[in-house]
From TrEMBL:
This is Uncharacterized protein LOC106123899. SUPFAM superfamilies: Trypsin-like serine proteases. It comes from the Eukaryota. It comes from Papilio xuthus. Gene3D superfamilies: Trypsin-like serine proteases (2.40.10.10). InterPro entries: CLIP_Serine_Protease, Peptidase_S1_PA, Peptidase_S1_PA_chymotrypsin.
Amino acid sequence: MNQKCSRAYFVMPHQEVIAHPEYTRFGIANSLAVVKLVRPIKSFYVLPICLPTLVERRVKRRNRAVFLIDYLNPVPIDLDGERMAKKTLKVFPHKDCIRHRRSTLGEGVSHELCTTGCGIRPGAPIISQDVDGIFQLIGLSAGSQPCRIHTMRSRLNDDPPLFIDVFPYVTWIMNVISASVVPRAFPGKLMLTEGGSSIGIRPGFLRQTNTQKFGWRGRMFVSGNYCYMRPKRQRRTAFFYLERFSVKAGPEAKVTVYIRISAGIQCTITCARLLIPNHKSTPIIDGVGSFNISVQLDTNWFPSRFFFTLGLNGKNTSADNLSKWWSQRNPKGMW
């Protein structure tokens, strides 16, 4: 109680933006696209919204109440300062849009809706709720005139906001989704890799290995081709190392963690997993595919304590690699 908690939001990069094949820069017809994220969002407090159904389409639209969801700030700012709000509007069919609109925006296009209100930003959605409590996305804002007086927010004015009707595009949206390979939500399979590493290592410490994939999987940073294989293939290796590290500081501090681990020449490290609290810094893991690895992690400012966990998978070294690595092993120790 009486604790100020940080805001809960997702920062999810997109993988692909698929625009409508008939989209043009003129008018609002077909002015929508499907955004494919790098992985699905799976959460208990963020639920997917439904596409409009035929039953929703047959509901009388004149003076029907819908909900507008948008941010309160007129100009987008940092996510920590953004606040979302819900406002009730009345939706009107296409005939009323043509009758009331003075501008020629969207003229001749039947896939549009009008609502009361003003000052609505492009891209803001309007949703409806059926008798079963299910929310459906029925329109996306194409923009509107700013509010000149406060009373314009609650009535149908002479230049009402224009929304793209989503229902005529449901078939195209479903075809795009069904044609795409959707990855599993974390912690399932996620094929997201980045470029090679650039850390300077003492010559002779790391053995020559094949290029290994690495990248983020949720809060976990992984390195190694085996990390991206099917779970059945990963179970052929042994999970032999797991350790949780804790860095304690008095005032606020930030540190650079550098770890070197040797599994022995008889063991080949196939996958390294590093669990850290956030993505503010990208770790560097080198040496996966051999028996020596190095881990470098630059932390951001933390108040008192910083935790991270390192886990390793491995398998028996092949006879070919064992003969190559034996001469490279330091006889005075494992390094």
